[in-house]
Amino acid sequence: MLFMVEMQVNIPLGFDADEAAQLKAAEKARFQELQAAGTWRHIWRVAGQYANVSIFDVESNSQLHDILIGLPLYPFMTMKVTALCRHPSSLHDDDR
Ligand SMILES: O=C(O)C[C@H]1C=CC(=O)O1
């Protein structure tokens, strides 16, 4: 199942810089793990914002939920989740 997830990161002004750096490093490691597994299929930076648009490929809504709430930066994120399905004109067999 494919989902588009729009994530906006809002780390408050004055938040401890070392703690923020640790959270960002942990987020990057988790992202790379999920990317290597094929679960976090795509990511784009939203130009001019600390935000991304991502595509997730998961087995269920609850798997996506567990992944998202487990992200190290989750407490500082707002997210919008949109379910996707295959476009009839797509040439990509792995769109499902
Ligand atoms: O940078 C972001 O948009 C937040 C998050 C998503 C992947 C990652 O490495 O950090």
UniProtKB/TrEMBL annotation:
Pathway the protein acts in: Aromatic compound metabolism; beta-ketoadipate pathway; 5-oxo-4,5-dihydro-2-furylacetate from catechol: step 3/3
Record GO terms (molecular function): muconolactone delta-isomerase activity
Record-linked InterPro entries: Dimeric_a/b-barrel, MLI_dom, Muconolactone_d_Isoase
Coiled coil: none
EC number annotated for this UniProt entry: 5.3.3.4
EC primary class: isomerase
Gene3D superfamilies: Dimeric alpha+beta barrel
Family the entry assigns: Belongs to the muconolactone Delta-isomerase family.
Assembly behavior: Homodecamer.
Annotated protein name in UniProt: Muconolactone Delta-isomerase
The species this protein was found in: Edaphosphingomonas haloaromaticamans
